[in-house]
Design a protein that fits this description.
Blueprint lengths: L10 E5 L4 E2 L6 E2 L1 E5 L9 H11 L2 E6 L4 H6 L6 E6 L4 H4 L2 H11 L8 E7 L9 H20 L6 E3 L1 E3 L3 E3 L7 E2 L3 H16 L3 E4 L11 H4 L7 E3 L4 E3 L2 H15 L7 E7 L13 H17 L13 E4 L58 E4 L5 H11 L23 H15 L13 E4 L13
Parallel strand pairs: 4-16, 5-6, 6-7, 7-8, 9-12, 12-15, 15-16
Antiparallel strand pairs: 1-4, 1-5, 2-3, 10-11, 13-14, 17-18
Helix pairs in contact: 4-5, 5-6, 10-11
Keywords: Disulfide bond, Glycoprotein, Glycosidase, GPI-anchor, Hydrolase, Lipoprotein, Membrane, Plant defense, Signal
Catalytic activity: Hydrolysis of (1->3)-beta-D-glucosidic linkages in (1->3)-beta-D-glucans
Main location: membrane
């Protein structure tokens, strides 16, 4: 299943919409959301971290590389982070010495200030059909696990996401089996690694890539007659469960039905090309909303009843550099952090309690009802931002800059960008919140994400 998560610049962020518990464990599970960065208009990582922490119920982030800017941006945020080894690096880190260096360079400088939770070794490696990558995948996983142990770290998991292309059969679900030869040579050893290390088998079920016009309601969790599996006598009312149970059947066939399953990606685009069947806002709302409600219910699947699955929805942002219309419109949020539609994860009263409400498309709101702030854009240089501070904090700017002076509540972090952010917003608010008052010679950008942190509160 060729899909959207093949670039190493992609990130994934996890939403905590509900705290769930598997019957045999007390480990909490979360709904997640993939956070891609194939775009030229996204906010900087530190702003994303603030938005996630202060404005949403998200508590986890997964990035598809080990970008140090991202890791720094999420430091001290209490948001769990999963990092990824690029596919191209897999052969190298299959050797212990290289794995030790990778951990030293990409984990140790940030951990535990940044709460790194998992290393994903590559992404959908089997789907690449690259024999070298496939042969080195499990050795790389073992080497990184050993490197973490050598560094005295036992809390970081090692896994790798798989597409459903790893199956040679999936319909009906009870017939699920891994591709021949790969089952014993590749997947049995990988599953044994997961069993021994108590780590999950990560898969990417996408009903969006498997539906037909006749099975659209089945894919969207809408009322339908279902698909009957004669071998088990079970009726499937949604494709998501059927795909998960096909994976489970393949694992059980090899004797590894005790290994946990994590849903690494799933989602539905809100817009597509005019002739693209089933792609619209209503269907995106239906799929993601029903998915969230279903996985948070704890009912599990027909073959895995009363189980919950850590599930990552694709994606956080609409990404304007993706190659097709639908790929550019998987986002739950726009780049300015306003919702494309509501999935019940905002802290402004739209999300109710621990159980997410059914998402509804967001109606346009009057501009004066939305709080906005002014912050530096990602490309602004320190020189330009210092000039902004000098202007705003001068008699001409007429703004009280004492909060960013030494001893002030916004002095730390003591950086030009942080101080400029406070000063530019103070000027923007003092002058009426007009967009042109946040221009600062193309170095400012208006956001709906409150940049306040700790004791440092930004005016709105």
């Amino acid at each position: 299943m060729a899909k959207l998560s093949e670039t190493s610049s992609k990130l994934v962020i996890f939403f905590t919409i509900c705290s769930l518990f598997v019957s045999q464990s007390t480990a909490a599970y979360s709904i997640g959301v993939n956070y891609g960065t194939v775009a030229d208009n996204l906010p900087p990582p530190s702003q994303v971290a603030s938005f996630i922490k202060d404005q949403t119920t998200i508590d986890r982030v997964k990035i598809f590389d080990a970008n140090p800017d991202i890791l720094r941006g999420f430091a001290n945020s209490d948001i769990y982070v999963t990092v990824t080894v690029a596919n191209s690096d897999i052969p190298a880190v299959s050797k212990l010495s290289a794995a030790v260096s990778w951990v030293a360079n990409n984990i140790l400088p940030f951990y535990p200030t940044t709460k790194i939770h998992r290393i994903a070794v590559g992404n959908e490696v089997i789907a690449t059909a690259d024999k070298t990558l496939i042969a080195h995948l499990l050795p790389a996983m073992k080497s990184l696990h050993a490197a973490l142990n050598l560094a005295g770290i036992s809390s970081i998991q090692v896994s790798t996401p798989h597409s459903l292309g790893i199956l040679s059969s999936s319909e009906p679900p009870s017939s699920g089996r891994f591709r021949r030869v790969y089952d014993r040579v590749i997947f049995a050893p990988i599953l044994e690694f997961h069993r021994q290390t108590n780590t999950p088998f990560m898969v990417c079920p996408y009903p969006f890539f498997g539906f037909t016009p006749n099975t659209l309601d089945y894919a969207l969790f809408k009322p339908n007659g279902g698909v009957f599996d004669h071998a088990t006598g079970m009726n499937y009312t949604n494709m998501f469960d059927a795909q998960l149970d096909a994976i489970y059947s393949a694992m059980k066939r090899l004797g590894y039905d005790d290994v946990d399953i994590v849903v690494a990606e799933t989602g539905w685009p809100s817009a597509g090309d005019p002739d693209q069947t089933g792609v619209n806002m209503d269907n995106a709302v239906s799929y993601n909303g029903n998915l969230i409600r279903h996985v948070c219910s704890g009912e599990g699947t027909p073959l895995m009843p009363n189980r919950t699955f850590e599930t990552y929805v694709f994606s956080l942002f609409n990404e304007d550099l993706k190659p097709s219309t639908s790929e550019r419109n998987f986002g739950l949020f726009r780049p300015d952090l306003s919702p494309v539609y509501d999935v019940g994860i905002l802290r402004n009263g739209q999300s109710g309690g621990t159980t997410p409400t059914m998402p509804t498309a967001m109606a346009p709101s009057p501009s004066d009802s939305i709080k906005k702030w002014c912050i530096p854009n990602e490309d602004a240089s320190d020189e330009a931002l210092q000039a902004n501070i000098d202007f705003v904090c001068s008699s001409s700017g007429g703004v009280d800059c004492s909060p960013i002076e030494e001893g002030g509540q916004c002095f730390d972090p003591n950086t030009v960008r942080s101080h400029a952010s406070f000063a530019m917003n103070a000027y923007y608010q003092a002058n009426g919140g007009n967009n042109f008052d946040c221009d600062f010679i193309n170095t400012g950008v208006v956001t709906v994400a409150d940049p306040s942190y700790g004791e440092c509160r930004y005016a709105a």
